[in-house]
Amino acid sequence: MAQARGSAIIAVVTVLLLLMHCNIGSATTFKVGDDGGWVFGVQNWPQGKTFKCGDILEFNYDPQRHNVIIVDQEGHDSCKPASDAKKFQTGKDQIVLNHGKNFFICGVPTHCSDHGMKLEINVE
C-alpha cells in the first residue's frame, strides 16, 4: 500500500514538473504550411520559426488525400512509421509539441518520400 502511494506521488510530481517546464499557458498555435496547409513540399516550413514546449501545431489538409503521423527520427528519415505510431486524419489536427525534436510525416504512400510531406520541429 505504501509503495503504491509512493508511486502515485512520483507520478503527480512528474506531471507537475512537465506542465511547469512546458509552460502550456503561454502556448502559440502555428498553422503548418501557413495558408497553404499540410501539403507537398512543406518540409522547409519550420525554417526561421522558434518553437517552445507546449506550442501547438495545427495541421490543415484534405483528409481524403493526407494524414499526419507522429514518428521518431528513424520514421522521419525513412518515411516509414512504426506499427504503433499515432495517426491523425481529421484534416484539422492540433498536436502539442514536446521538448526536443518532434517528427511528423504523411503516411500516404510516396507523399513523404517523394513529395516532402514531413517535418522535423526542434523545440527549445
Automatic annotation (TrEMBL):
Residues 28-124 form the Phytocyanin domain. Pfam families: Cu_bind_like. One of its GO terms (molecular function) is metal ion binding. PROSITE patterns: PHYTOCYANIN (PS51485). GO terms for cellular component: plasma membrane. Gene3D superfamilies: Cupredoxins - blue copper proteins. Keywords: Copper, Disulfide bond, Metal-binding, Signal. Residues 1-27 form the signal peptide. This is Basic blue protein. The lineage of its organism: Eukaryota, Viridiplantae, Streptophyta, Embryophyta, Tracheophyta.
